[in-house]
Amino acid sequence: MNRINQTFKENPKNLLSIYFCAGCPTLDGTADVIRTLEKNGVDMIEIGIPFSDPMADGIVIQDAAARALRNGMSLRLLFEQLQGIRRDVRIPIILMGYLNPIMQFGFEAFCRKC
Questions:
Q1: Dihedral of CA 16/67/111/39: which sign?
Q2: Sign (positive/negative) of CA torsion 78, 84, 87, 92?
Q3: 57 is catalytic
Q4: Do residues 111 and 27 lie in contact, with contact meaning Cβ atoms separated by under 8 Å?
Protein backbone atom coordinates (compact mmCIF):
# COMPACT_ATOMS: atom_id res chain seq x y z
CA MET A 1 0.00 0.00 0.00
CA ASN A 2 1.38 3.44 -0.86
CA ARG A 3 1.95 6.16 1.74
CA ILE A 4 -1.10 8.20 0.75
CA ASN A 5 -3.53 5.29 1.00
CA GLN A 6 -1.93 4.18 4.26
CA THR A 7 -2.30 7.66 5.73
CA PHE A 8 -6.01 7.80 4.87
CA LYS A 9 -6.53 4.28 6.18
CA GLU A 10 -4.88 5.08 9.51
CA ASN A 11 -6.56 8.49 9.90
CA PRO A 12 -9.76 8.68 7.86
CA LYS A 13 -10.64 12.02 9.48
CA ASN A 14 -8.78 15.12 10.57
CA LEU A 15 -5.73 14.86 8.32
CA LEU A 16 -3.54 17.92 7.97
CA SER A 17 -2.14 18.37 4.47
CA ILE A 18 0.06 21.39 3.77
CA TYR A 19 0.99 22.96 0.44
CA PHE A 20 4.09 25.05 -0.15
CA CYS A 21 6.00 26.10 -3.23
CA ALA A 22 9.49 24.63 -3.62
CA GLY A 23 12.14 27.30 -3.45
CA CYS A 24 10.02 29.78 -1.52
CA PRO A 25 10.83 31.60 0.67
CA THR A 26 14.44 30.43 0.17
CA LEU A 27 16.07 28.39 -2.56
CA ASP A 28 17.73 25.89 -0.24
CA GLY A 29 15.00 25.54 2.37
CA THR A 30 12.73 22.95 0.76
CA ALA A 31 14.03 19.88 2.62
CA ASP A 32 14.12 21.78 5.92
CA VAL A 33 10.49 22.88 5.43
CA ILE A 34 9.48 19.25 4.82
CA ARG A 35 11.28 18.00 7.93
CA THR A 36 9.84 20.79 10.06
CA LEU A 37 6.29 20.18 8.86
CA GLU A 38 6.52 16.45 9.61
CA LYS A 39 8.07 17.13 13.02
CA ASN A 40 5.13 19.41 13.84
CA GLY A 41 2.40 16.90 13.03
CA VAL A 42 1.59 17.42 9.36
CA ASP A 43 0.19 14.22 7.83
CA MET A 44 0.91 14.90 4.15
CA ILE A 45 2.83 17.52 2.15
CA GLU A 46 2.08 18.87 -1.31
CA ILE A 47 5.07 20.57 -2.90
CA GLY A 48 4.32 23.04 -5.65
CA ILE A 49 6.58 22.96 -8.69
CA PRO A 50 7.09 26.62 -9.59
CA PHE A 51 5.98 27.69 -13.05
CA SER A 52 6.38 31.01 -14.82
CA ASP A 53 2.74 31.37 -15.88
CA PRO A 54 0.52 29.90 -13.11
CA MET A 55 -2.79 31.31 -14.41
CA ALA A 56 -4.99 28.71 -12.70
CA ASP A 57 -3.66 29.66 -9.26
CA GLY A 58 -4.52 32.50 -6.95
CA ILE A 59 -2.27 35.45 -6.28
CA VAL A 60 -0.56 33.92 -3.23
CA ILE A 61 0.61 30.83 -5.16
CA GLN A 62 1.47 32.98 -8.20
CA ASP A 63 3.66 35.18 -6.02
CA ALA A 64 5.29 32.15 -4.37
CA ALA A 65 6.08 30.62 -7.77
CA ALA A 66 7.54 33.90 -9.05
CA ARG A 67 9.68 34.23 -5.93
CA ALA A 68 10.88 30.62 -6.20
CA LEU A 69 11.84 31.11 -9.84
CA ARG A 70 13.67 34.35 -9.00
CA ASN A 71 15.49 32.38 -6.31
CA GLY A 72 16.63 29.91 -9.00
CA MET A 73 14.32 26.95 -8.30
CA SER A 74 13.86 24.41 -11.08
CA LEU A 75 12.43 20.92 -11.28
CA ARG A 76 15.94 19.50 -11.63
CA LEU A 77 17.06 21.32 -8.47
CA LEU A 78 13.93 20.22 -6.60
CA PHE A 79 14.72 16.58 -7.34
CA GLU A 80 18.30 17.15 -6.14
CA GLN A 81 16.98 18.65 -2.90
CA LEU A 82 14.58 15.74 -2.37
CA GLN A 83 17.22 13.09 -2.95
CA GLY A 84 17.65 11.18 0.29
CA ILE A 85 14.64 12.82 1.98
CA ARG A 86 13.19 9.38 2.71
CA ARG A 87 16.01 8.69 5.17
CA ASP A 88 14.25 10.86 7.71
CA VAL A 89 10.78 11.76 6.37
CA ARG A 90 8.03 9.15 6.33
CA ILE A 91 4.84 11.08 5.50
CA PRO A 92 3.48 11.25 1.92
CA ILE A 93 5.06 13.85 -0.33
CA ILE A 94 3.08 14.87 -3.40
CA LEU A 95 4.43 16.98 -6.24
CA MET A 96 1.89 19.40 -7.72
CA GLY A 97 2.42 21.46 -10.78
CA TYR A 98 1.57 22.39 -14.30
CA LEU A 99 2.29 20.02 -17.15
CA ASN A 100 4.67 22.43 -18.90
CA PRO A 101 7.69 21.97 -16.58
CA ILE A 102 7.14 18.22 -16.57
CA MET A 103 7.03 18.14 -20.38
CA GLN A 104 10.23 20.17 -20.54
CA PHE A 105 11.90 17.82 -18.04
CA GLY A 106 10.59 14.79 -19.96
CA PHE A 107 7.78 12.48 -18.86
CA GLU A 108 9.93 9.37 -18.47
CA ALA A 109 12.71 11.27 -16.69
CA PHE A 110 10.11 12.84 -14.36
CA CYS A 111 8.58 9.46 -13.50
CA ARG A 112 12.00 7.92 -12.87
CA LYS A 113 12.98 10.77 -10.55
CA CYS A 114 9.69 10.54 -8.65
A1: negative
A2: positive
A3: yes
A4: no
- 1 band by pLDDT with thresholds 50, 70 and 90: confident
Confidence of residue 27 (pLDDT cuts 50, 70, 90): very high
Handedness of CA 95, 72, 63, 34 (dihedral sign): positive
Residue 10 known to be catalytic? no
CA-based angle 41:46:52, to the nearest 5? 145
Q: What pLDDT does 112 receive?
A: 94
- 98-to-1, 19, 65, 104 alpha-carbon distances in Å: 27, 15, 11, 11
Q: What does pTM read for this prediction?
A: 0.91
Which listed residue (10, 43, 46, 53) is catalytic?
A: 46
Question: Of the residues 57, 63, 80, 108, which is catalytic?
Answer: 57
pLDDT above 90 for 78: yes
